[in-house]
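Inputs:
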Amino acid sequence: MRACQRVFATLAGLALLVSGIGAQTIQINGAGATFPNPIYSKWFSEYNKANPKVQINYQPIGSGGGIRQLSNQTVFFGATDGPMTPEQMQQAPGKVLHLPTVLGAVVPIYNLQGAGELKFNGQVLADIYLGKITKWNDAAIAKLNAGAKLPATDITVVHRAEASGTSYIWVDFLAKVSPEWLKKAGVATSVNWPVGLGGKGNEGVSGLVQQTPGSIGYVELIYAIQNKISYGSVQNADGEFVRATVQSVTAAAGAAVKNMPKDFRVSITNAPGKGVYPISSFTWLLLYENPKDKAQSKVMVDFVKWALTDGQKFAPDLGYAPLPAEVVKLEMAVLGTIKVS
Amino acid sequence: MFKGRELGFRLGTGAVAFCIVLIVAAIGWELVRQSQLSIAKFGLGFWVHDIWDPVSGEFGARPFIWGTLYSSVLALLLAGPIALGIAIFLSELCPASLRTPLTFLTELLAAIPSIVYGLWGIYVLVPIVRSLESSLPESLKMVPLFSGPPVGVGMLAAVLILAVMVIPFTASVAREVLKAVPMSQREGAYALGATKWEAIQAALYYARTGIIGAVMLGFGRALGETMAVTMVIGNTPKISLSLLAPQYTMAAVLANEFSEAADELYLDALIEVGLVLFIITLTVNVASRMLIWKMNRPAVKRKPVRVATPVGEAA
């Protein structure tokens, strides 16, 4: 009986070994933010073309879900639009590294007949979203837009109904410029909105804004570009009014390089510097520093290195801003610390 | 041998039926288990608290409970009579050549995915509702039912879309129920000299429990409807009587916030919302069952349907 078992175990071990050697593909699973899903999908398919043995699967289930699954170790990597909180870092079974992959931006959109392109600053946006500015011809808006035709209509505020990274970036900016916003609503993927309607997804928000005269909302830059929605410019920390473009968003990251913390968990909204668009943000990949599966780890590190260098050229076409070279250099050093054997 | 097979059949079907009970119990148990943090922290206050603030970790479900019940009840009030009208027309009055295509069309409505209803709601229904709301006379706007700015999305749009979604369900079940009424009921009524309307009344009376079942089926569907409602209701957790006000439902908040809920209390609070929805749906279903039982039992006290007295017969 025992001999029989031993033979069986040996055979099973052999089978495992053989299948390990002969394995044609190595599969890695990840989950997280929906916002970078288009570029991640592009990367995974391009990388698979160049390295047919590597297959990376990504489920865009939301940043919160990604963090949860990473902590439960049901996926190898996560992805998020807002950095993990210190409590979340503590709950994870190992040290989690944040690696910025690309940048995105959020832009204000509005529906105001004949007003042309409007200028906003953080204070005005915060006061509108706090319900303190309720009319379009409010003195604060008029002061920024000398000469624009501003009617005395009510402002209808539109925000995202569901929790989302887009909202996180938007309220993160509002909280930085308005202490009152920080106190009353705070910063999270979903907050207790003081006023306004909730639209579901970018399409829900832009749909509501386009249909409702006198409304204001916010969407991702990619979404505004792809759907040719005109959007306003926003005053940055240096006092310039900047329109969101791939260049002005990358500039925001460049400005943050000097004060970049070692773990990259940094908000770059309202970043200082010339030509910087203030409502910009990184989106991060989440990896364990010392993962269980070293074979997957090695492949993943190679992939991230590729994504940060060759992969960046796919970003602008999809509406994302590529990382500045300085950030990539810092990340390469961090990638070197991930255990691969 | 026959006995053995008979026994096996009984046991087999019994086990399958028991599975249903088991599944319901397991869902309830799991919902309670997963929402422990929130139950411990808020207790029964969860049902009556108005603030939903994920940032400060304060959760109360009352606005969602209110939005769910309010929208479903209003949708039912609107859809019930229409669905019943459709059912009566299709089973009693419709010319045979029209019956099949009309039946098919009602059932087709039930097959449309709710996300399609939602998109139709955003792009077609909401603009119509908005223009309707803006054209309300000022005097009406003083009434709490119609107060607030006309933004289009809100309770009215949600009720209308729910009604459209509920009608095919209620109508087709009610039609089946009416079809099952024995011809002898109607013939009996005719024999007593009843008009068409009176004969239909008799059939309706005969089918009343089934019709209530059909209506409750629609109510259940309205309570749990998620996608279409969240797209048009405005997703604002504030209690209001106004049809114009944007509000929120339980199913909608679950769909919207579950994917991004990363911290434990937030997640538990969302699962407790699911528990509340589960309890309410269960209560509604049990209540409708009881209603049907009650109606069936005192069959002796049945109120006779009044039938026109034939001419010439002495009273």
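Chain B touches chain A at residues 51-56, 122-123, 126-127, 130, 149, 151-153, 230-231, 234-236, 246, 248, 252, 255-257, 259-263, 267 (CB under 8 Å). Flag for discussion at group meeting.
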